[in-house]
Automatic annotation (TrEMBL):
Transmembrane parts of this sequence: 107-129
UniProt cross-references to PANTHER family, sorted A to Z: SENSOR HISTIDINE KINASE YPDA, SENSOR PROTEIN KINASE HPTS
Protein name: HAMP domain-containing protein
Residues in HAMP domain copies: 131-186
Coiled-coil segments: 164-201
Domain of life: Bacteria
Length: 420
């Protein structure tokens, strides 16, 4: 029998080299002889050998690879065993699950990083795309919110840079709509202005013809009595009155021009009624430059004389002004019996009907009454008016018209129309 001996370092050289190369990542390798005794590692204590002995029990199964809980660490480990046909030794290779799956974990981390990167890039691209869409839409929304009838077509939305073709088409369509709407509004406003001018001109011609007859009759009487000076003054006033009425080139005058005309009218009426009629005009000078429709006060004065003379003379006509911080009014007061309840109800009903009318109110050619004065004043001031009618504390008739100095004092859609 020949027996050879060899050092363990030489026998297990390949295992030792493998352990040195891989250090902590190296698998734990255990070698058992045919009797089940641990022969590698060879430089450990007997107690440690005894602790490793349960590993040999793992090699008795039918599987060459298995997963188990380490009797030493209590962690999951993977084991692979092989038996040498030459020596009969059992080689058991054991490695923790964390080491075996480390490449998988690294791959998962790489994939997660790639996914996160793609998500970040996608979010950034989505943000940029959404911003390129949302920002122009918000800009268009703000333009629409700021848009008013007076500012149509002033802000050109096509000047805003847009990167999406559909949005550019939307901008162009909106700009076209705004321009068309502006043109339509201008045409509508021109039509309304022409209609208002035509109606105002028609109403200007509605001066009571009896005024001319009575004035001419008065002139005849004065001429027969030899009062040439009064005749001249009457003819001059009548000529100015007719020139004022028949001048259709201007439908808007200053309050001073209107009051001058009213004063000439009252003078003619004074000549007719003599001492039975008295009148006074006291208007704040700061109001004389206010624009008003032509023949807006004269109808009120005419009605005051007509209905205020239904009593014993003398009859008094007073034209005064009331100026507050936010508004002004012209009041025409007579000394007659005042408005009847039936008359006030009728006027109120007609005015409420005019307020509810969405378009230009219908002006009937049937005399310059109180309701027609209201309608003309409403058209001229576009609803921002003061219009009052009723009786004074003494029971005499009073009608006042006015307006607010600014729309902040009262809404343009609100009319201060009161039956007193």
């Amino acid at each position: 029998m020949i027996e050879t001996a060899k050092q363990c370092k030489s026998v297990f050289k390949s295992i030792i080299t493998y352990k040195k190369k891989n250090h902590e990542d190296a698998a734990s390798i255990y070698v058992f002889d045919s009797n089940g005794d641990l022969i590698y590692p060879y430089d450990i204590s007997q107690e440690y050998k005894a602790a490793l002995q349960p590993y040999y029990e793992l090699t008795k199964g039918d599987d060459s690879t298995l997963t188990f809980i380490s009797p030493l660490t209590g962690k999951t480990e993977y084991a692979a065993e092989a038996v040498s046909s030459y020596t009969g030794y059992t080689y058991l290779t054991i490695q923790p699950e964390s080491v075996v799956l480390a490449p998988v974990y690294n791959l998962l981390r790489i994939l997660a990083a790639i996914v996160a990167l793609f998500l970040t890039i996608s979010i950034f691209i989505s943000y940029r795309l959404s911003r390129s869409v949302v920002k122009p839409v918000k800009h268009l929304k703000h333009i629409i919110q700021r848009m008013e009838l007076d500012t149509l077509g002033q802000e050109k939305v096509t000047a805003y840079p847009v990167s999406v073709n559909e949005l550019e088409e939307l901008y162009q369509a909106f700009q076209l709509m705004s321009d068309n709407l502006k043109d339509s509004m201008e045409q509508l406003n021109q039509a309304k202005e022409q209609e208002m001018k035509a109606r105002s001109m028609a109403l200007q011609t509605q001066i009571n013809p009896h005024f001319y007859y009575n004035t001419l009759s008065s002139i005849i009487v004065l001429a027969e009595n030899g009062d040439s000076e009064t005749v001249v003054k009457m003819c001059r006033n009548l000529s100015r009155i007719m020139r004022y009425i028949t001048n259709t080139t201007e439908t808007t005058v200053t309050l001073k021009d209107e009051l001058d005309y009213v004063q000439k009218y009252l003078y003619c009426m004074k000549v007719r009624y003599q001492s039975s009629l008295n009148y006074s005009i006291h208007v704040d000078e700061s109001l004389l430059s206010q624009p008003v429709p032509k023949l807006i006060i004269q109808p009120i004065v005419e009605n005051a004389i007509r209905y205020g003379s239904n009593c014993a003379p003398p009859w008094n006509i007073s034209i005064t002004s009331v100026v507050t911080e936010g508004s002004w009014q012209i009041e025409v007061t007579d000394s007659g019996p005042g408005f009847t309840e039936e008359a006030k109800e009728r006027i109120t009903a007609n005015i409420m009907k005019a307020i509810q009318n969405p378009g230009l109110p219908e002006l009937k050619i049937n005399g310059l009454g109180t309701i027609n004065v209201y309608l003309r004043w409403k058209i001229f001031c576009k609803g921002d008016i003061i219009f009052r009618y009723g009786n004074t504390a003494d029971g005499h008739g009073i009608v006042s018209i006015g307006r607010y100095f600014s729309k902040t004092d009262k809404s343009a859609d609100e009319t201060d129309c009161i039956s007193e």
